[in-house]
Design goal:
- The protein has helices at residues 6-17, 23-30, 34-41, 52-65, 71-78, 93-96, 99-115, 129-136, 153-160, 184-197, 213-228, 249-255, 269-282, 315-330, and strands at residues 83-88, 118-121, 143-147, 165-168, 179-182, 203-207, 238-240, 263-266, 291-296, 309-312, 339-342, 345-347.
- The chain has a six-stranded parallel beta sheet, with helices on both faces. Strands 7-6-8-9-10-12 form a six-stranded mixed beta sheet, with helices on both faces.
- Strand 3 (143-147), helix 9 (153-160) and strand 4 (165-168) form a beta-alpha-beta unit.
- The protein starts with 5 loop residues before the first helix and ends in a 13-residue tail after the last strand.
- It has three domains: 6-69, 434 Repressor (Amino-terminal Domain); 83-182 and 315-342, Response regulator (Rossmann fold, 3-Layer(aba) Sandwich); 184-313 and 345-352, 3-Layer(aba) Sandwich (Rossmann fold).
- It has 360 residues and is of the alpha/beta class.
- Helix 2 crosses helix 3 and helix 8 (129-136) packs across helix 9.
Length: 360
């Protein structure tokens, strides 16, 4: 039975409301040990069974006092936070939230919910790779998913220090790193082959950053396919467009030439849609005057005018699988295979037209 007058008990509650209620407060009010309270809250089996009356009394006091566990303290005891970091090349990418980023986070979030993990998006720029590594390893997260440039030094630091991480939508030359990626060379080949089958011979490319693994591989696939068909690639036909807000003036200049390309393969849907808008501004009809193929085949491709033909990589599945791999690493479970390379597919829509008539 709780001692003290109602006014004294009320004074105790008011005093506790002015500070955070602790496990010790609950134990003192219930007349049991802190270990007993912890065992009840965590539904932990004990050598000596806890009576139902004690359990109910503790739970009632927890509710009365408004006690909630200190997550940091629990993490220190358990040596696990059940939280995973998502780290992109630049924190600002989260702000842009493209169709690709949306699908990526959808896959990560669904799998995290399924496996009982929280997600922390790292949105603060760090002064150095060392600072990034220290932030990831400061105890807030159990592991990280990284979408970084090819052979980014952060991977080396985390690998050397034994911190669980998985690369996704990128790769590493190291054979001791876990990664999930798409066969981007094959995807680019599908796109260019499709345009060639439609009769195009002068095909330009909107290229991503040369340091990005995916953009580099897509450029390689474009060059290889053109060469395999004996088709020239002029330097000016490869137009840098590292992101959706890139300056497309070089492409506009190219489209004004009498010997301009008749088709375009863009390294991402985001820049392909920019190219579609540019064509509309210049009075160039797609697909009658110019054909465009993008990459990622996100849902927005169905809603452009005309709908955008695009290479589809299974973004959602790749992201979900990468998170599942990471959780296995965190739990010290076996992960086989260490790397996964997914096969892309071509989703044909109206931005290329259906005619096989040769373009001169």
């Amino acid at each position: 039975m709780l001692g003290g007058s109602p006014s004294q008990q009320g004074g105790m509650s008011n005093s506790m409301n002015r500070r955070r209620v602790t496990l010790e407060d609950v134990a003192r009010r219930a007349g049991v040990s802190k270990v007993t309270v912890s065992n009840i809250l965590n539904n932990r089996p004990t050598a000596v069974p806890i009576s139902e009356a004690t359990r109910q009394r503790v739970l009632a006091i927890v509710q009365e006092l408004g006690y909630y566990p200190n997550a940091v303290a629990r993490a220190l005891v358990r040596k696990r936070t059940d939280t995973i970091a998502v780290v992109l090349q630049f924190p600002a990418i989260f702000r842009g939230w493209s169709g690709f980023t949306n699908e990526l986070m959808h896959g990560v979030s669904d799998k995290a919910i399924e496996l009982g993990y929280d997600i922390l998006m790292l949105t603060r720029a760090q002064s150095s790779v060392e600072a990034e590594a220290q932030t990831l390893m400061d105890g807030r997260v159990d592991g990280a998913l990284l979408l970084r440039d090819y052979d980014d030094p952060l991977t080396d630091l985390l690998t050397e220090r034994g911190f669980p991480h998985v690369l996704f939508f990128t790769r590493s030359h190291r054979d001791d790193v876990y990664w999930v990626d798409c066969d981007n060379v094959a995807g680019a080949r599908m796109a260019v082959e499709h345009l060639i089958r439609l009769g195009h011979r002068r095909i330009a490319h909107l290229a991503g950053s040369p340091s990005a693994c995916s953009a580099r591989d897509r450029l390689q696939g474009y060059r290889q396919t053109m060469a395999a068909h004996g088709l020239p690639v002029r330097d000016e036909w490869i137009v840098p467009a590292h992101h959706g807000g890139a300056d497309l003036t070089p492409l506009a200049d190219l489209l004004h030439r009498p010997d301009r390309p008749t088709a375009l393969f863009a390294w991402s849907d985001e820049v392909a849609i920019r190219a579609l808008s540019l064509c509309n501004e210049l009075g160039i009809k797609v697909p009658d005057d110019f054909a465009i193929v993008g990459y990622d085949s996100t849902p927005i491709c169905e809603h452009t005018n005309p709908p955008l033909t695009s290479v589809r990589q299974p973004i959602y599945q790749m992201a979900a699988d990468a998170l599942e791999m990471l959780v296995k690493l965190i739990r010290n479970e076996r992960v086989e295979p260490r790397t996964r390379l997914y096969t892309p597919a071509l989703d044909i829509r109206a931005s290329c037209g259906a005619s096989g008539e040769a373009k001169r």
